[in-house]
Structure formats: structure tokens, C-alpha cells
Amino acid sequence: MAHTDHMPHSAGAPSAGDAGRPVATFSHARLAFGSRVLWDDLDLTISPGEFIAVLGPNGSGKTSFLRCLLGQYHLDAGHLDVTHAIGYIPQQHAEDADPMALRGRDLVGFGVDGSRWGIGLRGRSRRKRLVDAALAEVGATAYADAPLGLLSGGEQQRLRVAQALTTDPSLLLCDEPLASLDLTNQRLVVELIDERRRRANTAVVFVTHEINPVLPFVDKVLYLVGGQFRIGTPDEVMTTATLSELYGSEIEVVRVNGRLVVIGCEDAHHCVDETDPLATHPGVEAGHA
Ligand SMILES: Nc1ncnc2c1ncn2[C@@H]1O[C@H](COP(=O)(O)OP(=O)(O)OP(=O)(O)O)[C@@H](O)[C@H]1O
After folding, report:
1. H/E element holding 130?
2. Is 63 in the pocket of ligand 1 (CB under 6 A)?
3. Does the CB atom of residue 58 touch ligand 1 within 6 A?
4. Which residue among 2, 7, 15, 16 is least packed, with the fewest CB closer than 10 Å?
5. Cα 54 to ligand 1 centre (Å)
6. Is residue 33 within 6 Å of ligand 1 at its C-beta?
7. How many Å apart are CA 133 and CA 255, to the nearest integer?
8. How many CB atoms are closer than 10 A to CB 216?
9. Closest residue (by CA) to atom 2 of ligand 1?
10. What domains lie within the chain, and their CATH numbers?
11. For residues 263 and 239, what is the distance between their CA atoms, to the nearest angstrom?
């Protein structure tokens, strides 16, 4: 990795003046760890309000892509110009702190604090205002004072969305936020993210092993495999021809009741196990392993 390419620009939430300005632009971007190239010559513009799904098998570079946008990883070649106004929704996981000692509103407050310490009285009332607004935005006010440990996975993930929204982001990065949620809660969390996108024209980059829960919202797919990638609409990328070429082996993509079923790339979580009757019979929730 090099340390010279990352250029955050100062755009906050979209304003009239920069409404059309991309929130991120990768130009001829390359990222590698030693001899392992994750991508090379990647050009991608992320526009306000755009929903981008990042897909690929384990180890293909999805999280590294988010880390580049967060400024944690630096490109080896090319350029990245990205907004400062970023919100980040992590995977659902236990907090480091005792979940019974931490309330929902504490978790959301971490989003306001960022890395700042020692906020004064004025800071405290601003913090409360921002936390209350974010809690209301995701409909979590009712359980904001309950210990995190007593809340369901869906409620906790709703709070993490609120945490990401406290910065009023123009780019929302989502790192597999649906992992370990049931289908109902997956839908609720995706709808919450999409609602924010439509209301504030916030761009969304959504890393996922499973495209189906986000398929109705996705404008573009970035599909990473073994140092290669494809970018396009779901209809362009999620095809038998494109994925077979990308994986260098025979992949089959079929649509079942509006859902995508990808067969043949066994190391990718979003591919189905052909022996799984749930996945191979139309009329059931198919498309995920
Ligand atoms: N800081 C680092 N130093 C060295 N190698 C790294 C570093 N970060 C990531 N890698 C390697 O880069 C590759 C891509 O990792 P990354 O976590 O981005 O993949 P991923 O697509 O998010 O995987 P998963 O689906 O398993 O979460 C992996 O081989 C990983 O070991």
C-alpha cells in the first residue's frame, strides 16, 4: 500500500452547490498486499443518492474497498477523491463494552463523539439533540434507554444505523449489516437505509454476501473476484456469461420469483448449494447459502 493517493474533499450533507458532485471517485485505482492484487485499474464514480452493492467471495477485497473509502487503506496506484461526510454501519457483533451497562443512546452517542474527548456543557446539549434526532430517524426512541444486551439483533442494528446517521453523512458505508439478522429484520434495516438515501440523497455502498435483500434498491454492482472485477447494473453483472468469465469457471445465474440464484461459485456465500432443496425449488426464499 502507498500513502499518497487518498484525497478527502470537504463536502458535508448535499447542498444546492454540490448536489451533483460525486461523493467518491476512484481513478485507475490499484490495491495490493505484496503480490496479492485486490484490484487494478478500477474506475468508479459514486454519485449522490446512488446505491452500490459490493459483492464477491471471501477474501476478494470487499472490506478493503470500504477501508479505502474510510481512509484506512491507501491505494498503490491511481487516485481516490472522497467526501469527508461518511457514516459507517458495521456488521452486527457484540460491543467491547458490557452490553448490560451500555444503553442504546450511548451506542448512538459514540457516533457524535467520534474521536473527540472532554466535551463541555454546550457540547452535551448538542450531543443530546443529535442523538435524539438520529434515534427518531430510525424509530428507536422507545427503547433508547434500555440496556443493549436486552435488545433484539434487529433493534441493535437499527441503533447502529442511527449511530452512522449522527454525522449527517453524504456517503453511508455498510459492512454486511444484515449478517445474522432474520429475513424480517433484514428487510427493516435495508428499508431504513434506503429511506435515508431517498430523503437526504445519501449515497450507499453496501458490502454483502447476499444480493437479494438489496436487489430492488441497487443501481450498480461492484463484483470482486481474485483480483478481477466487474461494475455495472445488476442486469449487466449478475449474468451467467459475466460471472462465468469473472470466476473463470462455469457459473449459472437464474431468476426465481424475482430473486437471483447463483450456482457454481461454492466459495461465495451468496451462491446456492445445489443439494439444498430450499434453494433449488421455486417459490421459496432462494439465493443464499
Ligand atoms: N492490512 C492487510 N495486510 C495484509 N493483507 C490484508 C490486509 N487487509 C486485508 N488483507 C488481505 O486482503 C484480502 C482481502 O481481504 P478483505 O477483508 O478485504 O476481503 P473480504 O472480501 O472483505 O472478505 P470476507 O468476505 O471474508 O469478509 C485478504 O486476502 C486479506 O487477507
Report:
1. helix 121-137
2. yes
3. yes
4. 16
5. 14
6. yes
7. 40
8. 12
9. 33
10. 6-85+208-280 (3.40.50.300), 97-164 (no CATH)
11. 11
Q: Is 146 exposed, middle or buried (0-12, 13-18, 19+ CB in 10 A)?
A: middle
CB 267 within 8 A of CB 273: no
Interface pTM (ipTM) of the complex? 0.98
Which grid cell sits at 285? 426464499
Q: φ and ψ at 204, to 5 degrees?
A: -125, 130
Contact 246, 230 (CB under 8 A): yes
Question: For residue 115, how many other CB atoms are within 10 A of its CB?
Answer: 4
Averaged over successive runs of 10 residues, the pLDDT of the chain (289 residues) comes to 52 48 97 96 97 94 94 95 90 63 85 56 78 91 92 89 90 89 88 93 94 94 95 95 92 90 70 42 33
- Name the residue with the closest Cα to ligand 1, atom 27: 58
Mean pLDDT score across all residues of the chain: 82
